[in-house]
Amino acid sequence: MHYQDILTQTVLASNLAASLGQHVVDLSGNKWTLSSPVLNSIVPASLPSQVHLDLYRAGLISDPYHGLNELNLRWIAEATWTYTSDPILGLLGDVESTWLVFEGLDTFANVSFCRNHIAFTDNQFRQYAFDVSQALRECKGTPIIRIDFASAPKTVNAIAADHSAERWPVNIDALFPNRWFMRKEQSDFGWDWGPAFSPAGPWKPARIVQLRSGNIHILNTKLDIYRKGQINYLPPDQAKPWVVNASLDYIGVLPRHPRLSVEITDTESGEVLTRQPSNDITVTRTTITGAVVVSDITPELWWPSGLGNQNLYNITIIVHNGAKETTRVTKRTGFRTIFLNQRNITSSQLARGIAPGANWHFEVNGKEFYAKGSNLIPVDAFWPRVTTEKMARLFDAVIAGHQNMLRVWSSGAYLHDFIYELADERGILLWSEFQFSDALYPVNEVFLDNVAKEVVYNVRRVNYHPSLALWAGGNEIESLILPLSKLVDPDNFPRYVAEYEKLYISLILPLVYENTRSISYSPSSTTEGYLSINLSAPVPMEERYKNREAGHYYGDTDYYNYNTAVAFNYSSYPVGRFANEFGFHSMPSLQTWQQAVDPADLHFNSSVIIRRNHHYLPQNLGSWLDSARGMGEMTLAVENYYPIPEKSDPVANFTAWCHATQLFQADFYKSQIQFYRRGSGMPERQLGSLYWQLEDIWQAPTWAGIEYDGRWKLMHYVTRDVYQPVIVSPFWDYATGDLEVYVTSDLWEPVKGTVTLRWMTLSGSHIDDNAGTPTTISFNVDAINTTSIYSTNIRDLRILDAKDSILILSASGRGHLPNSEEPTTFTHENYFTPLFPKDLTLADPGLALSYDDQTEVFTVEAKLGISLYTWLDYPAGIVGYFEENAFVLVPGQRKQIKFITQLDCEDGEWQKNVTVRSLWDQKVRD
Ligand code: BMA
Fold this sequence. Notes:
Blueprint: H1 3-16, E1 22-26, E2 29-35, E3 43-47, H2 51-57, H3 69-72, H4 74-78, E4 81-85, E5 97-102, E6 108-113, E7 116-122, E8 128-131, H5 133-137, E9 145-149, H6 152-161, E10 206-211, E11 216-227, E12 242-252, E13 258-266, E14 272-277, E15 281-283, E16 287-294, E17 313-321, E18 324-333, E19 338-341, H7 347-351, E20 361-364, E21 367-368, E22 371-376, H8 388-400, E23 405-408, H9 417-426, E24 429-433, H10 445-462, E25 468-472, H11 477-488, H12 493-515, E26 521-522, E27 530-533, E28 541-543, E29 556-559, E30 578-582, H13 590-596, H14 607-612, H15 625-641, H16 650-678, E31 688-691, H17 714-722, E32 726-732, E33 738-745, E34 751-761, E35 776-781, E36 785-793, E37 805-816, E38 823-832, E39 847-852, E40 857-862, E41 867-873, E42 878-882, E43 887-889, E44 894-904, E45 915-917, H18 919-923
Parallel strand pairs: 22-23, 22-31, 23-24, 24-25, 25-26, 29-30
Antiparallel strand pairs: 1-10, 2-3, 2-4, 4-9, 5-8, 5-10, 6-7, 6-9, 11-12, 12-16, 13-14, 13-17, 15-16, 17-18, 19-20, 20-21, 27-28, 32-33, 33-36, 34-35, 34-37, 37-38, 39-40, 40-44, 41-43, 41-45, 42-44
Helix pairs in contact: 8-9, 10-12, 11-12, 15-16, 16-17
This protein binds beta-D-mannopyranose (BMA).
């Protein structure tokens, strides 16, 4: 289903149908046209939509994602565009008021109704409700809505050119400049992983609401569920009862003495579990708020994936006038507390060996846990074409990847409710951010007022979702932009800090706290935490900014290093309490490139491919020098560590090169994730790893683990493997030869088991006396911890030929998944070679692949030798993933693997085109 259908249905179900005395005309659908001075025709259009989508549907432009259309379609972003509705039928005359409600306009828009100018809008992230009663009364003929969208790039350039506009020393421009002057998705101007289309249009649903006397229409619903007495920045007391605070934003006129009650029902049976009136009600001209303490039932808790069940309840908020029900709104929600603990390390933590400083980790329902996940960027440059199915596939891949948290990176858009709902169902925590990134922003009154409305609307809208984990002010402002500003312009640095604090602390923090008690707030991602909180101070949170004490840890880390010579040197990785960003870019697969690029351009360094690589962001749109630098980094990474593909067939060579960049990316992420997870048992007590980035916005070289249409890169399979609860990992210091093996677990109880260690040659024979290594070692790992089970130096081992040796590590242990009574057996396989892959004496492993269409199982065998990076590849037209991929296969081992189909456009006829290859094939010339 298309997202606008879902939204319309949700709106209808939860708001409209339930409220009597209101007449609603949905403006969604195709009764619109699009025109522009740059077009000589009028084009059929729809709502919700954006200009590029309507032009594409009308056949006036080719696929915006094709080839270099990002450059060719720049004229669209520079033009003005008008959406005009067909005459609107079915409006009533005998009403008290008529409203035009837009869930979202992107961005600089003049709205008129019946030829009357109604409003100018300048914020993509706000909901707008305009009273058009007068305009309707004066309307001659059937009403028409007209929305004129200005060019966002031109508008911000005009703002920037004004003499009063502020200038900052290090703001990072995208492909169109001056993005910080607009409240529009910042990555619409391009980002280092995405295109610059600067779309415009009515990107979310809209409706006309007509109200009779004494009726209201609900615009937005805030539901806040917290433990009695809970305060955003303190750990909630789990022994306290739940409070449900409900607040409705409305238009119309409330009854003189309204009452409000709250009903909790079972989502499946519909049984009413409790219904309670709110004793205290606060009413303003736009909101009605009440709260109840849930004392007569004990709801089952909602847990993130892997930590328990995702128990959900329906909560209905009912507004009454005396005994008569006026309005009801239902939201599906869950009972949980989620807290970002940034409090000082306690003496008992110190006694446990935790380094001094402050905590920086999440606690769900009072329990600390290891956050495993990645960063979510906008899933498409054009939100109106993002479907529920696409999001469901993506989130299913997140769950399959053993992830429990995504950081919804700032500078995309606040996610739609249907996306949070999918996360609520699956147990994916969404660390959510306000849309500010890598820049300082204006702090004049008009700008701040606009931001305040955006913040209040979105905090209230999203708060009912149990998946909501955190609000953060923006991206890399505290860790990157402020320090750089100091370096470049030390004289004005106090002004930059003051501006930063004014926006993210003095303005946004109180707005968050006033509208939710259940969610923590951090002014920026990444930070060194705070020193103190004083809500009556003008700057209520005093940030630490800098960690000045060696051996102390306070915050989270953000790490990118494009010098791949040190990629596997652990001492180059940051040590902190939580890793919220780290990564490296790679090429997507051939199948994905073929969606967007003509066959003639399928070369590693073709001009089309280089120009689609936005790392590094070109100084001018269309220039390629900066992009070429990013291509060079991928090339060097391959050359440093892997066999260099040299195939005579150009497409085969291109495919192998794309694959090679993915080998490096996967190994680099694996190395860091193992390091960060091991940190859970080190003094830093590291409790989170969110890599950059989950998925792609288009077909291009990026940091993503999942390509634009849902195909997994190697990295997503590999991170899936090392995000399993119990893992065994070798840590090799290649400079000294030291090798240590750790078992790491994020279970909430100890886990016991054994690791077998097998040294083999690459042809698969056992090395004599296991090279002096014990074959079996038992382990016992405490809750969320790590244990070193073996350490040696490679030089002390009896390995005859390092080029022809591999250590296979297999762990097996028994323990309990959190909140589970039944014990589970956890297994994990890993491997280690005493040289990097390019230096190994690879031999043909003799891979054989077969498929049984009865059981739908693929069987892979290595008949001649050990197969490294065994890679099953499936053809275009299918989306899904193999149960296992990118693995090591030992001769004699038969892997039976199923494919989980998420989307099949080939009617099941594709299995015969599945292929298998390994590192050996990378090296082979043909
Ligand atoms: C960080 C992120 C993004 C960026 C990514 C890759 O800076 O916060 O802004 O896309 O790294 O460069």
